[in-house]
Amino acid sequence: MMATCNVLNLALPGRHFYDGQDPYSQTEFERKVGWLGDRFRALNADVIAVQEVWDEQALRTAVARSGLQYGFVAVPGAENGDGHPGAQGTPRVGIVTRLKVDAVQSLAAFPAAAVVDVPGLGPHTRFERPPLVAMLRLKHGQPVCVITAHLKSKRPKFLEDAQGKISEDTDDPAVQALASLRSLIMRASEALALRLTVVDLLHRSRLPLVLMGDLNDSPHSVTTQLIAATTQVAYDKGARDHALFSAWDVQGEAALRRDVAYSHIHQGYPEVLDQVLVSEEFVATSRGSLGDVRRVEVFNDHLFEGRDRSRSDHGFVRALLRLRLPDLPPSGG
After folding, report:
1. Alpha helices in 53-165 (DSSP H)
2. Which residue of 118, 134, 160, 252 is 20 to 30 Å from 285, comparing CA positions?
3. What share of the chain is helix, strand, coil (3-state, %, to 5)?
4. Helix, strand counts (H, E) of the chain
């Protein structure tokens, strides 16, 4: 079981995280980690990819409230204690898992090929929220790679002065359009940087890979397809080697496909922003298949409970994946 959860600004009580937003009181914090603990218990996933964490300790508290046993909880860049004040400027992504962890790497800088110029800002060279690449191992020894990502939002990117104050007329429609273009370019360059990472990991390998997170766009958007390159498979069968497939599209025929598979509601319109993408090793019809996607579920009932920052404004997505056990040598007896 793998799940992705945008937990909406998970921070310790009394800790300032965004201008214009009050820190959580102790009561608010207890309500938030209690709610998250309940959700984690309901998901009961072996791997949870989390986004929007300001303090790793806050995530550890929420995980503890689930009552489940997880041996590994990490949010690089949001550590607390020993001089680490948690994430600064923007929240981070992390991972919670029961599986054996071989390595975890936070990707900050883009490969040179993904660096682009953003109007008014210059070269965009780094992820705002560095993705996390985790090399995990199942009980029978099969490795699996899990990437947690949270791409740049569609929120307009206005220019700021040296003090961090917006220096443009945000009411000017032309300025708004250019600011939206900046966000799109930044998200697209992040998607390209992720794509290059995926290709490096998958090209001519049999490594099962799962990419999860808030991609801030729909499964068939240009930016998501920059990462997945699924459309290339239609005319280039060799592209399966390094393509990613929406778990929702390749789940088993017996799975229940609900029409309410949205994970976010923006101005009254449902969207699918939180995604689970898998390599061909999880596509049952692929020659490189090592398993399959049994089913995908979206836990989004809380989106109708009203806006309350103690809950998330995103639905949580869970996928049940299967990998075949390796062939065992015949027993001597």
Report:
1. 56-65
2. 134
3. 25, 30, 45
4. 5, 18
**Lookup result for tokens 């947690």:** 148
List CB contacts of 67: < 8 A, sequence separation 6 or more. Answer: 37, 41
Largest interatomic CA distance in the chain: 80
Q: What is the pTM of this model?
A: 0.91
| Angstrom distances, CA of residue 86 to CA of 11, 63, 78, 148, 225 | 9, 17, 4, 18, 32
Output the six-digit token pair for 330: 């015949």
Q: Per residue in 307-327, pLDDT tens? A: 788 888 888 999 999 988 766
Q: Which of 238, 198, 232, 202 is nearest to 215 (CA)?
A: 198
Interhelix angle for 56-65 vs 26-43, to 10°?
60
What is the sign, positive or negative, of the torsion defined by CA atoms of 182, 189, 92, 305? positive
DSSP 8-state code for residue 309: T
Q: Token pair of 242, please?
A: 């390094």
Q: What is the rounded CA–CA span in Å between residue 74 and residue 31?
A: 22
pLDDT tens sequence across 188-216? 999 999 999 999 999 888 899 999 999 98
Taken in order 305, 311, 313, 314, the sign of the CA dihedral is negative
